[in-house]
UniProtKB/TrEMBL annotation:
It comes from the Bacteria. It comes from Neisseria animalis. GO terms for biological process: lysine biosynthetic process via diaminopimelate. The keyword Transferase applies. Pfam families: Aminotran_1_2. This is Putative 8-amino-7-oxononanoate synthase. NCBIfam families: DapC_gpp (TIGR03538).
Length: 399
């Protein structure tokens, strides 16, 4: 077996299951799963109809590069979403099987562990999406973490030493951020671009939550930021997905956009990797990227949840609506996020994810400790009831 597999750590949800072993929820209470970021809103009709009407095309092998119509739909969406940003659909767009698969395989494509005998470095935010770490380790690389401290929850680049920067091949950004919902501003992009100019790494920007934002405050994307700062997209790649935008996590559809040379090599890798998207899924994806009303409705549903849940939680917690995403990154006053999660499960059948499971220990500690991630994916009534229960249980503890 590949010995690098031994470096992989259990996924956060596996760690949660292990931590909850032997702990039972109260009988007669339906569990409320707020620990997994799995969208529960209805899949839009425009997607299901396009999928159903193209099932006959399952008889054809799809191309890894995808249909020209899909690449054009993705480029058109970028132009509409990012203030007229122009992307070439033939060289700067590549359909992928969701952002998770693409992030993993892209890191494998870029890392080259034999260049100078030292391990290539990938820098990741912390807390982070564990795919970043797994792809780095299995690619023979070394991962370093930039903690994301309160209140901005953006990576602290100053914590990375000069020696590490010199070996860095990829810097991963996640904006809107999972789990905090923070969004990088133009000046934040300018800071990381300056570091890129100095050290020559590739930027991989995970933007799968970009369409869940509030009060019309659209998050700026990496390609948009680069264009506004007069930069090309050299060394810059964004990853996005329909899973959260269109409530189709099971469709496994997204795309990568950016540096044409990087995507040319990424396509070569994927041709061998066997990751071509089926034609019916491509047809459904075209319909999704071309339709905006269902996305607007989706945002309204999340806005309603935050509007109702945040005031309830504020009765006992210092909490605010995130800049974007459907997560609440809730600070636990006594700091014990795991005990808090266990109590919610044992006394109310509410599942949340301890923040420590989403982060790694560093010299300055585990930045996830003392927080829990709450995913507002259940229906409005369930989210409101869960918030009321959380406040009530915390009040009982502190009374």
């Amino acid at each position: 077996m590949n010995s690098l597999l031994e470096q992989l750590q259990p996924y956060p949800f596996a760690r949660l299951r292990e931590a909850m072993q032997g702990l039972d929820a109260p009988e007669g209470i339906t569990p409320v799963p707020l620990h997994i970021g799995e969208p529960k809103h209805a899949t839009p009709k425009v997607v299901t109809e396009a999928l159903a009407s193209s099932l006959a095309e399952l008889s054809a092998y799809p191309l890894t590069a995808g249909l020209p119509e899909l690449r054009q739909a993705c480029a058109d969406w970028i132009c509409r979403r990012y203030d007229g940003l122009k992307i070439c659909p033939n060289t700067e767009i590549l359909p992928v099987l969701g952002s998770r698969e693409a992030l993993f395989s892209f890191i494998q494509t870029v890392l080259d562990p034999v260049t100078d005998g030292s391990k290539p470095v990938v820098i990741s935010p912390n807390p982070f999406y564990q795919i970043y770490e797994g792809a780095t380790l299995l690619g023979g690389g070394e991962i370093h973490f930039a903690n994301c401290p309160a209140p901005a929850f953006n990576p602290d680049w100053r914590s990375i030493s000069e020696d590490i920067w010199k070996r860095t091949k990829i810097v991963i950004l996640c904006s809107p951020n999972n789990p905090s919902g923070s969004v990088l501003k133009r000046e934040d992009w300018q800071e990381i671009f300056a570091l890129q100019d100095r050290y020559g790494f590739v930027i991989a920007s995970d933007e799968c939550y970009s369409e869940i934002y509030f009060d019309g405050n659209k998050p700026i994307g990496c390609l948009q930021a680069a264009a506004e700062l007069g930069r090309s997209n050299k060394g810059l790649v964004m990853f996005t997905s329909l899973s959260k935008r269109s409530n189709v996590p099971g469709l496994r559809s997204g795309f990568v956009a950016g540096d044409a040379e990087l995507l040319k090599n990424f396509l070569l890798y994927r041709t061998y990797h066997g990751s071509a998207m089926s034609i019916p899924v491509q047809r459904a994806s075209i319909a999704a990227w071309n339709d905006e009303p269902h996305v607007i409705e989706n945002r309204h549903l999340y806005q309603e949840k935050f509007d109702k849940v945040i005031p309830i939680l504020r009765q006992k917690f210092d909490v605010k609506t995130p800049d974007a995403s459907f997560y609440i990154w809730l600070k636990i006053p006594d700091g014990d996020d795991l005990a808090f999660a266990k109590k919610l499960w044992q006394q109310a059948a509410i599942q949340v994810l301890p923040g420590r499971f989403l982060a790694r220990m560093t010299a300055s500690g585990n930045p996830g400790e003392g927080y829990v991630r709450i995913a507002l994916v259940a229906d409005v009534e369930s989210c409101v009831k869960a918030a009321e229960t959380i406040v009530s249980l915390y009040s009982d503890t502190t009374a």
